[in-house]
Structures are given as structure tokens and as C-alpha cells.
Amino acid sequence: MRGTSVLSWILIICVCQVAVRSQYYSDTLPYQPRPVLVTNLHFYMHEFTGTTAVVLTQANITSNNSSVPFATLVAVNDPLRTGPEPDSELIGNVQGISLLAGSNASSTQYIEFGFNTGKFNGSSLSVFSRGDPGLAVVGGRGQFAMATGTALFNPILINATNVIIEFNFTVIHY
Fold first, then answer.
1. Quick one: signal sequence residues (predicted)?
2. pLDDT surpasses 80 at 171
3. Which of 10, 68, 106, 163 could form a disulfide with 47 if both were Cys (CB 3.0 to 4.6 A apart)?
4. Is residue 8 part of a domain?
5. How many whole angstroms separate alpha carbon 137 and alpha carbon 147?
6. pLDDT over 90 at 29, yes or no
């Protein structure tokens, strides 16, 4: 019993000495924020139904008369281009999911706009928002780290097999 008590005190003293001498913290450094940057981006998303946008699941509702069925989950992997023409320069892609949950074809989307050429090569913008008339930019990677902003969109072409959407992003990043 006496040996256990002595050993316990020795361990307590050693632990106290380690805590006092280790100084696991560092001196406080002054905060030097990076300058805030505002970037405006303009590009087009080209979607091909059944190829780059695929229905993953759909609710079994028999009374659904909408052209876009209620409770449909869609996966997208669409090319981003500099123009509305199918042969315009490819600058990246859009990947994510879209949940069609409204009776008027509204959707909630989690999508990422990735850039693989040019000034923003390797960077991406993350969007999580309802699709009413703009989307909220909630983050990013690469040059768009800690990004916020908005993405306004304008459907250019919507038919049975193709969708082309024009995007205008205003992004605040560091």
C-alpha cells in the first residue's frame, strides 16, 4: 500500500513537471487578414438528359401529373463551357445532386462547379440552395477557399434531351 502511494505521488509530480515545462501553447501573433477578392464568372452548363443527368430514384406517386415528377433525386455531371454552343471551350464540370421536391419543378441542389483549365484550374465552387432565381455559394476549394456569394442562372434552352443554362457568379473569396 505504501509503495503504491509513493509511486502515485512520483507520477503526479512528473506529470506536473511535464505540463509546466512543455508550454504547448505559442505566443499570440497579430492577425493579418488577406485582402478580400470579388470575382465575377460567366459560363454555361450543358446538360444531356439520360447521359449527364440521371434519375437515381423517384417516389411512387400515382397522382403525379407534373412534367417533372415530385420527389425525384437526380445526379448530374455536366460540362461547363464558355458559350452556349456545344463546341465552345470546355472549362470544367458540374457534379452533384438535385432533389425535385416542389410541385412547380423547384429543386434543392447540392452541386460543385469544378474548373480544370485557365486561371482557376483545380479550384471549385460549392453551391447548396433552392433553385429560385439564384443559388447560394457556400464554399470552395483552391483559389475559392472560404468563398461566399451568389449564382444567378438563366435557362437558355430546355427540351426533351438538352438543357443549357447560363450562370453569372459573384464570388467573394480570399
1. 1-22
2. yes
3. 163
4. no
5. 7
6. no
Comparing 63 with 71, the larger pLDDT belongs to 71
The answer on pLDDT for 47 being more than 70 is yes
- The answer to the question of residue 18 being in a domain is no
C-alpha cell at 103: 410541385
SS (H, E, C) the chain: CHHHHHHHHHHHHHHHHHHHHHCCCCCCCCCCCCCCEEEEEEEEEEEEECCCEEEEEECCCCCCCCCCCCCEEEEEEEEEECCCCCCCCEEEEEEEEEEECCCCCCEEEEEEEEECCHHHCCCEEEEEEECCCEEEEEEEEHHHCCCEEEEEEEEEEECCCEEEEEEEEEEEEC
pLDDT at residue 172 tops 90: yes
- Is residue 65 predicted with pLDDT exceeding 70? no
CATH number, domain of 123, equals 2.40.480.10
Residue 153 lies inside a defined structural domain of this protein? yes
Domain count, the chain: 1
Residues 61, 66, 71, 75, CA torsion sign: positive
Which domain range does residue 83 map to? 35-60+67-173
The pLDDT mean for the chain works out to: 83
The closest of 82, 80, 86, 110 to 98, measured between CA atoms, is: 110
